Amino acid sequence: MSDILVTGADGMLGRAVVRALSGRHAVVGVDIAAFDIRDAAATLDAVRRASPHVIVNCAAYTDVDGAESERELAFEVNADGPGNVALAARDVGALIIHISTDYVFDGESRSPYTEDDTPNPLNVYGESKLAGERAVADSGAEYLTLRTAWLYGHDSPNFVETMLRLAEGGERLRVVDDQEGMPTSAADLATIIADLQSTGVRGVINATNSGSCTWFSFARAILDLSDLSHVHIEPVRTAEFTRPAKRPRRSVLSLARLNESLGWEPRSWQEALADYLTERLTG
Prior knowledge:
Elements: E1 4-7, H1 12-22, E2 27-30, H2 40-50, E3 54-57, H3 71-92, E4 95-101, H4 124-138, E5 142-148, E6 151-152, H5 159-168, E7 173-176, E8 180-181, E9 184-185, H6 186-196, E10 203-206, E11 213-214, H7 215-224, E12 233-236, H8 256-262, H9 269-282
Parallel strand pairs: 1-2, 1-3, 3-4, 4-5, 5-10, 6-9, 7-12
Antiparallel strand pairs: 8-11
Helix pairs in contact: 1-6, 2-3, 3-4
């Protein structure tokens, strides 16, 4: 019997969540080698055996561009899978904490998106994640869905690592400067999850680091904080940088509900990034 079961525990966020929760709870981390959340029977069996009080579902298909050509797979993992986990949570009376995304919105709002704003995803990835939100909500389980954004961490390829690899390799850097979002440290999100799971807040809540920027500003900060300020980086418009999946222009989320629920405000993305880069160097 475990207090908390973490699915997708071998992924970037899953590892961070296991680390954040292990000091406070009996945590079991599982990944696809243990059971595939797309398999409803296997999921139910595994959850019954673990008998957790809380399930944190970090398992996801996260390739935004790949989803455009792998729509069926994206929906199986991001929609059917969370639905299976939620039904299993209902069966054992557990709370499911599910991870969603800012990409459920179209980015046309001039104001930060609240939890009550109407989603309108622009790409298959966003559509699949929204379907996952609805499957969790319709399951009858007690649930908390967190919408996060621009996630990076130590245990997986991500934008920060890509920028550093390209800069150190002497490649020309061109980064879009007309898409705005909220860079979020996986470690900080894991801390938020660890605190929220005991608050009693339920439903949908936005969860990111504080503040927003463009991808170009994010990349510039990465280089400046890594003693790579000499590396030239060119801002470009989205129209100049063709990718399979359309991205929202401004997927900034309101953190008012999160701040009220936690009783504290997540630190700025700049501070979180500086810590990540320091930890990266020191191991």
